[in-house]
Each structure stands twice: as structure tokens, then as C-alpha cells.
From TrEMBL:
Keywords: Repeat. Belongs to the PPR family. P subfamily. This is Pentatricopeptide repeat-containing protein. The keyword Repeat applies. It comes from the Eukaryota. Pfam families: PPR, PPR_2. InterPro entries: PPR_P_subfamily, PPR_rpt, TPR-like_helical_dom_sf. PPR repeats lie at residues 316-350, 383-417. Signal peptide: none annotated.
Length: 419
């Protein structure tokens, strides 16, 4: 008897929840897509301006088929979706017209969808919306709202298709938000991220867009300091005939070198070159910086001098500045100054960054007079970096009156202090 009573109570609770959700969403559906005049019966659904339509409901999460979580897929989207989705009225009209045209709803059907929405139908509707309007934001509005209608979090596959549409519609910043949250939600688990990559690959339409999407995924892993996983996913991409963009590849190489894996970095560069990502001064500068940070300045100088002969790349001011900065950081100010003054022998003119590096070095070792000489010699207009160097030195000496004077001088020159 107790068991049967509990079952009845459970059924009653479920039915009440289902009825409340169906009734609520049926009303919202009528309000949003079918019968706008019904707003008169409940002014609370009308925005202050009268130009926006709000879809509101409680949120109930279900496990994701691709990646299980009870969190929404993006923080800024969560703010909107958690309680209500605010949609411009013109977007509501566009969504309604497309849904009617493709027979997802009937124009005067007050019950909303006549079929149960699932991830596959959501993907088809998203495609219809983007194909008809060429506006990714309209698809995104429906994507947010449909999650409320379904009453469960979108699957990884649905999210993946939405990401492709966002990139196709030049809304990469939204795609970055979604992918970054997916990476965080996976918690650095390789298997989960591989499933995400598979979903992204299987929901592709355009190869160029897929390359951008997967590059963003790798970049998000790098931002989360998941370097090992980013490298594995890169090689998995390579098996699919895709390689990360040049910018993402350089970011990954930088992180590989940061964790002191020089041989692994060389292997990665070989893979880059074999996939059409040609070497440039920026890539070789990373290795010069690595040699300098390891205290191996001879190898750093050898690579700098051999760039033209062995790689056909003329060293630029950035490569030399990286070496100069490494020398200054290690306290070799005499050598750094010598390289700075001899740049013209290599056909390169000094710039404010290279000169500022040496100035900062002199300030840090307690030789501000030498720093001032460099400023006068190169007629360098002090920038925020130079002023910061002098302020650090003055504050270390405890001369706060002089520091205050220099600080005020910065404002008079139109320079504003940074963090």
C-alpha cells in the first residue's frame, strides 16, 4: 500500500510538472510566435519598451549525450537563459516565418510544436533559420529558447552545429564562448574533448569553417593550460587532414616551449612545416627566447645569426629584441648594449622596444644614470614602459617624493599608468 501510494504521488508530481511546463510553454509559444495579441491578458510578459518578447520558464537540466553537466554552455548565455530569453520582436517575426514556411508549426496552431523536439530536429531548424536569413544571431536566439522548450540542456551535437553556424555567420566571439565553456566543462579529460571534436567534425558543412572551429577548440585548450591535450587534439586534427591556423600553432608552440620540452617543440615545428605552415621569424624567435631563458646564449646567438643561412629568413628587430631582452634579464647589460648599438650593422634600426629593454635592465641593476644616457643618445621619448622602470627603481630606494614627481610628469606628457 505504501509503495503504490508513493508511486501515485510520484506520478502525480511528474504529471503536474509536465502539465505546468506544457501549459506555460504553450502560452509563451502563443505569445511569441503565434498570437501576439494575447499579451494583453498578461502585461507582465511585455517589456517596458514593448519591442521585446520574453520567453520565461524554470530550468530543468538533463544529462548531455555528448558531455554530461548540469551547467549551461556559456556564462553570458546562462545569464539570459537561466530565467528568460529576451528576443527582439523582428527576430521573433523572422523565426516564426521560417518555422511556418518549413512546416515546423502552423500559423494558427496555438499548441506550439506538433512534434517532440530533439537534438536532430533542433539542428534541422537551426539550418533552416540560417539558410533562410543568413543571420547567425537569429539561429542563436532560437537555440537559446529551444533549450527552454525542451526542458533539458542541449546535446554536444546540437551545440557543435550552433558553433558552425556562428562561425559561418561571422560571430566567432560567440563560438569562442561556447567552445571555451565546453573545454572547461570537460575538466581536461581527453576522452570528453575527443568526443567534442568528433561532434564538431560530424556536424560540419564547410571545410574552411571546420578548420576555423577546430582551431578555436585548440586555442581554448591552450588558454586553459591543457597543453598536452591541445597537442593530442592537434595530431587528431592532422589525421582529419586539418591543421590549426598559424596563429594558434604559434601559441601552442610557445606553450610547449614554456614547459621545457625543446625536443617536442622541434617535432611540432617539423609537423607544422610538413603541413604547409612555413617557418618565419616569429617561430624562430620563440626558440631564441627559450635558449636565453635556459641561459644558453651561445645557442640563441647561433640561431639568430643562422636564420638567413639555414632557413632563408632574415632576422628582424623582433628577433634581436628577444635576444637583447634575454641578456638584460640575465644581467648581461654590457653585452645587451653592444648588440643594441650594432643593430645597424645588420641593416636594422633600433626601435623604442629594443631601447626600452636595455633601459629597464639598467634600472633593475641600480644604474639609472646609464639608462638616462641611452634615452638622450637615442632621443627616445619616454613611454609608459620606461617610466615604469624608473618608478620601480625610485620606489625601491624609498624616495617616494621623487617617485610622486615622476608619476605626475607622466600625466603631463599624456601618459597614463597601467596596472
Amino acid at each position: 500500500m505504501w509503495v503504490s501510494s508513493s508511486i501515485l504521488n510520484l506520478k502525480s508530481s511528474v504529471l503536474n510538472h509536465w502539465f505546468a511546463r506544457t501549459k506555460g510553454f504553450g502560452y509563451i509559444w502563443c505569445r511569441a510566435f503565434l498570437l501576439p495579441s494575447l499579451a494583453a491578458y498578461n502585461p507582465r510578459l511585455e517589456s517596458d519598451s514593448g519591442n521585446l518578447t520574453c520567453f520565461a520558464s524554470s530550468r530543468h537540466y538533463a544529462s548531455n549525450a555528448g558531455v554530461c553537466s548540469s551547467e549551461p554552455f556559456s556564462e553570458d548565455i546562462d545569464t539570459v537563459v537561466k530565467n528568460f530569453v529576451v528576443v527582439p520582436s523582428d527576430c521573433v517575426e523572422a523565426i516564426r516565418n521560417v518555422l511556418v514556411k518549413h512546416n515546423w508549426i502552423q500559423r494558427f496552431d496555438i499548441c506550439g510544436f506538433s512534434i517532440e523536439l530533439d537534438q536532430y530536429k533542433v539542428i534541422r531548424i537551426l539550418d533552416d533559420l540560417f539558410e533562410e536569413t543568413s543571420d547567425a544571431s537569429i539561429a542563436l536566439y532560437f537555440f537559446r529558447w529551444s533549450e527552454l522548450w525542451i526542458g533539458a540542456e542541449h546535446s554536444s551535437r546540437s551545440i557543435s552545429r550552433m558553433i558552425h553556424i556562428l562561425v559561418s555567420g561571422n560571430m566567432n566571439y560567440r563560438a569562442v564562448d561556447m567552445l571555451l565553456h565546453l573545454v572547461k566543462r570537460c575538466g581536461g579529460e581527453e576522452r570528453s574533448l575527443c568526443l567534442v571534436m568528433n561532434d564538431l567534425f560530424e556536424t560540419r558543412v564547410d571545410h574552411r569553417v571546420l578548420e576555423t572551429v577546430l582551431s578555436i577548440l585548440i586555442d581554448c585548450c591552450i588558454k586553459e593550460r591543457k597543453v598536452g591535450i591541445a597537442l593530442k587534439l592537434t595530431y587528431k586534427m592532422d589525421q582529419l587532414g586539418i591543421f590549426p591556423s598559424r596563429g594558434v600553432s604559434i601559441s601552442l608552440l610557445k606553450e610547449i616551449l614554456r614547459i621545457h620540452k625543446l625536443e617536442l617543440a622541434r617535432e611540432f615545428v617539423e609537423r607544422m612545416v610538413s603541413r604547409g605552415r612555413h617557418l618565419n621569424a616569429a617561430v624562430l624567435s620563440l626558440f631564441i627566447s627559450k635558449h636565453c631563458s635556459d641561459g644558453d646564449f651561445d645557442k640563441g646567438w647561433e640561431l639568430l645569426m643562422g636564420m638567413k643561412q639555414y632557413y632563408g629568413i632574415r632576422p628582424d628587430i623582433v628577433a634581436f629584441t628577444v635576444f637583447i631582452h634575454g641578456l638584460c634579464k640575465a644581467g648581461f647589460l654590457k653585452e645587451a648594449t653592444s648588440v643594441l648599438f650594432n643593430l645597424k650593422l645588420f641593416g636594422i634600426s633600433q626601435d623604442s622596444v629594443s631601447v626600452s629593454s636595455v633601459i629597464d635592465g639598467f634600472c633593475k641593476v641600480g644604474e639609472p644614470d646609464e639608462a638616462v644616457k641611452l634615452i638622450h643618445y637615442f632621443r627616445l621619448r619616454p613611454n609608459i614602459y620606461v617610466y615604469s622602470s624608473f618608478l620601480s627603481k625610485i620606489c625601491d630606494e624609498g624616495d617616494m617624493v621623487r617617485a610622486s614627481t615622476v608619476f605626475q610628469e607622466m600625466f603631463e606628457l599624456g601618459l597614463f599608468p597601467d596596472c
